[in-house]
Amino acid sequence: MNAAAAHSGADSSASAATVREITAGMLRDWPLPMPGAHADKEARGHVLIVAGSREMPGALLLAATAALRAGAGKLTIATAASVTAALGVALPEARVIGLDETPEGGLVARASSQAARELLAGSAGELAEGAPLAASASEKQDPGLAPPLRQACERASAVLIGPGMQDKDACAALVTALLPCCGNAPVILDAGAMCVAGGDDCMRFATPVLLTPHAGELAGLTGADKEAIAADPQPASRSAAQRLNAVVALKGATTIITAPDGDMWSHTGGNTGLAISGSGDVLAGLIAGLAARGASLEQAAAWGVALHAMAGEQLSLRHGPLGYLAREISAEVPALLRALSAH
């Protein structure tokens, strides 16, 4: 039996009643996929992050840095065209795709009118990596996603959508357009991208994705009371996971991770210093990087939550319980991964 199966429980009725505590020992018994000694960057996975906006490009920077610190081998980011130059310099490891923007600052996943004209003419150019942008007959009739973004989705080992995005309607349209192009890659929906899981037209996912709400965000998606969710997070997490067919990582002082089949994990740890702007973006990036390496969504969430908390504990020892920055969290992760892999 593999590690994932061992941690999923013997039967669904038992797993629904059992909450596994995430500890260092539990993580050591549930090891992450590791590349071979001679593996290249492709073997470590390719993360695509669609996120950010002209007002919040830093959220993407935090998430992308965390994905690389978690061990992913390649990184592509897609964000507002107005900030691509700055992010390209700040993230020299990444390929950067610029997207059109709505007046409210949202991202437009569809091809711009100029790109559509080029695609219809069969001259949309080539990707930076040298792969031609071959357009099918259906694409020539309906250009759909901007071709570089479509191909990035198809090549990704894991996809993160949401940190720092604005314009709820644009977010919903972007997620709806991207999901069919992601194939079998694990998808993490964070922050604004979770909007498709709320309201009267909420989406039940054909293939499970990972959602990362805190109590307030889950209250906004479900209409439930925020304080009630925070006081008793397990039933709220389980209900959302089953209703949406999603893995739900309900963040809080105790974080509850629930799979659609009812399997549940809990983590208590970290410190108040982690309650700082940008901290959730780092966590989303860590999860995406671990998923790109081959971890299941449940395993990536469990490890990501634990690493995030442990990093906060390490920073508090040096800086005190308050005052360290979200940008400092990721740098703690490689050493923590090494320590957790040691027996």
Automatic annotation (TrEMBL):
InterPro entries: CARKD (IPR000631), Ribokinase-like (IPR029056). Keywords: ATP-binding, Lyase, NAD, NADP, Nucleotide-binding. Its cofactor is Mg(2+). Residues 23-340 form the YjeF C-terminal domain. AMP binds at residues 251-255, 280. Signal peptide: none annotated. One of its GO terms (molecular function) is ADP-dependent NAD(P)H-hydrate dehydratase activity. GO terms for biological process: metabolite repair; nicotinamide nucleotide metabolic process. Its EC number is 4.2.1.136. (6S)-NADPHX binds at residues 59, 164, 214, 281. It comes from the Bacteria. It catalyses: (6S)-NADHX + ADP = AMP + phosphate + NADH + H(+); (6S)-NADPHX + ADP = AMP + phosphate + NADPH + H(+). HAMAP family: NADHX_dehydratase. Homotetramer. Belongs to the NnrD/CARKD family. Catalyzes the dehydration of the S-form of NAD(P)HX at the expense of ADP, which is converted to AMP. Together with NAD(P)HX epimerase, which catalyzes the epimerization of the S- and R-forms, the enzyme allows the repair of both epimers of NAD(P)HX, a damaged form of NAD(P)H that is a result of enzymatic or heat-dependent hydration. This is ADP-dependent (S)-NAD(P)H-hydrate dehydratase. It comes from Duganella phyllosphaerae.
